[in-house]
Amino acid sequence: MTTKTKQARKLIEGRPALIVIDIQKSTFIDNSEVRTIDNMPGYKERMIAARDLVDAAHDYNVPVLFIQEVHRPDRIDFGRELDGDEDIHCLEGDPRTEVAKDEMGYRKGDYIVPKRRYSAFFGTDFEILLRGLKVDTLLLCGGLTDVCVHYTFVDGHQSDYFCRVVEDCVGGSSVQAHEAALKAMEYLQTGAVQSREAVINAITSL
Amino acid sequence: MTTKTKQARKLIEGRPALIVIDIQKSTFIDNSEVRTIDNMPGYKERMIAARDLVDAAHDYNVPVLFIQEVHRPDRIDFGRELDGDEDIHCLEGDPRTEVAKDEMGYRKGDYIVPKRRYSAFFGTDFEILLRGLKVDTLLLCGGLTDVCVHYTFVDGHQSDYFCRVVEDCVGGSSVQAHEAALKAMEYLQTGAVQSREAVINAITSL
Amino acid sequence: MTTKTKQARKLIEGRPALIVIDIQKSTFIDNSEVRTIDNMPGYKERMIAARDLVDAAHDYNVPVLFIQEVHRPDRIDFGRELDGDEDIHCLEGDPRTEVAKDEMGYRKGDYIVPKRRYSAFFGTDFEILLRGLKVDTLLLCGGLTDVCVHYTFVDGHQSDYFCRVVEDCVGGSSVQAHEAALKAMEYLQTGAVQSREAVINAITSL
Amino acid sequence: MTTKTKQARKLIEGRPALIVIDIQKSTFIDNSEVRTIDNMPGYKERMIAARDLVDAAHDYNVPVLFIQEVHRPDRIDFGRELDGDEDIHCLEGDPRTEVAKDEMGYRKGDYIVPKRRYSAFFGTDFEILLRGLKVDTLLLCGGLTDVCVHYTFVDGHQSDYFCRVVEDCVGGSSVQAHEAALKAMEYLQTGAVQSREAVINAITSL
């Protein structure tokens, strides 16, 4: 691969937004060994680690968008989502489906964006919000690295956003899937994979 | 993960279409070692192997859609595509950008769908065509497994299509990326990853 | 215009769904002369008239989808909506923004689809729901005829749905705009404009 | 309607692009009285009048995008388009379907965007192009005022673009439909409807 056309990018280009993907109560109140959606070891700690990102965003006026996967209780909107490894999940009305507001430090002024699929862009008002906020760079945390984070990143990338994934604040269905997804995102945008420390530094330098 | 809600699916559910993703002349006329887009070893053979799928589709009246990544010559529409590992590629007017029609057995009645991004659904008339053809199942071949094939699969999945990927007729940027993407697709739809032999059997059994 | 290629369509083709567009409490609890969004004379009566459609749909197992225009309270998501005749409207939390559930006979099993723009398809999970319900024909009522109803019809039409508008159960910003929009919808699909009586007959004949 | 929240807008906000909608050879080489798509009296003159806009755009480095409605020759992608007043139109390969390049002064550097439906946004790479060009304001000319121009305007509006329609350089299916559509667009964005003279002045003042 030649690199003569590469333009170096900063961690944050233009205006950022922190996108907290699917950090929901199930992680905190459901301690089942066998889960409807598989989680890698240490998943919960990785979600807890995202709290510092939210606090930094709040301190530096970076918009915070909490994405919430939620399905209608009659299950009409699962589409093909039950045709693979995942089982019925995130039903509206189930306390496990709620955004983990207390744990994540949600406050008035933050946004909640419900979704029915994996990408935050698909069938939601996510991009209407990004446009209203004039966002250029998406800072992604949450889960699953290999599913909702990865596919939100891809749609962000295809829609011309600069996308960054906070590698120690995302968790996958397995360690291997998590690592493969991080590589895939780095393939799409050099410098996409960043540590929480680096991202917080970038936020505080705005 | 519990499985009590699983419904077994056939390889082909309803009406299929064969989606030949980005099998373009560059694979056949450009023998560079260093390529603008990385290819795993054996990539070209995997593209050649897709020819039998096209022939079977033709014989059994399965619509064939050739997806073609192509960028405007002034490069205005690359978006973030040059921010990662990929270099300038698939310019309109370059002979390497043409669909590999002879190699793939393209014939009148097949469709060509140009695209500017990775997913065949993104910014194209792909879904207008799928609806007109009343397609239920997408049979994917071509490349890259880990990019255009994977992300077309994801959008197909989110749009409620049954999606299958022909594992010996797709090639990735590297062996690891190829294998990780196949796992990701199988995670989304059990039975998604199929051999060419199995897919051709399913087509001939329609 | 020649008509040799025309295929006559039934009022309801395949599976229908009743789409109740933006019938919200403001129509019933806000009696202002000057409104944030203009209403033709008799607007309220036309919304009340839609109740019979909802009842018929309930009796004959036709899914009912209540579309609700609602904007985030910090007004970040109005986009260009305040650049024309319309003023700030439909803020989340304002009692006038609620779907007129009692008036319309909303019951458990009906769906509510919030939106930020005019077309029910734009930035919403509307089409995810239509696919899950396997809908072929959209029966539209509510308001404004010339804005949200018209533009939902157009997107439905472009997405290959059969679209019908119940002319005595929709109301526009003015009589002229209402009538012009009905003509525009009839131009797109012959037989699109139907009376409530005809639509209820079609529902009861399913 | 109250106006206390109105912000006055300039004719051109930020960066403009000239969008030439469906000015195709059929207008110039097909003199049929009965047309597959109805045209108001003076339609052809209104298309010819758009030439001055193209020339001005060229002189002042405003990108010019020619939208072309074109259907695949096997007619698979008409969707519901033949269910109303329109008959089979714009088939690929038919000389009448070509963009009227000579008449409109098309030159290298201009863009052609094929589409299968009415809105230039629907199932096309139109918005990928607008983003690449960093466009803020769409200047619309061409036809039909009441269909492709109107519905492109609506999607532009919903996507947060400033939209302007050049009233003497657009033509509708009838005078009444043309005038009603202009009113509808002015309703959405105050100052949307502009004369060719005013638009050219705004371009030359950039």
Automatic annotation (TrEMBL), chains A, B, C, D:
Keyword hit for Hydrolase: yes
Keyword Hydrolase tagged: yes
Gene Ontology terms, MF aspect: hydrolase activity
Pfam family, one: Isochorismatase
InterPro entries found in the cross-reference section: Isochorismatase-like_dom (IPR000868), Isochorismatase-like_hydrls (IPR050272), Isochorismatase-like_sf (IPR036380)
UniProt signal peptide: none
Keyword line: Hydrolase
Membrane-spanning parts: none
Isochorismatase-like domain boundaries: 17-195
Enzyme class: hydrolase
EC number: 3.-.-.-
Protein name (record): Isochorismatase family protein YecD
The species this protein was found in: Ruegeria denitrificans
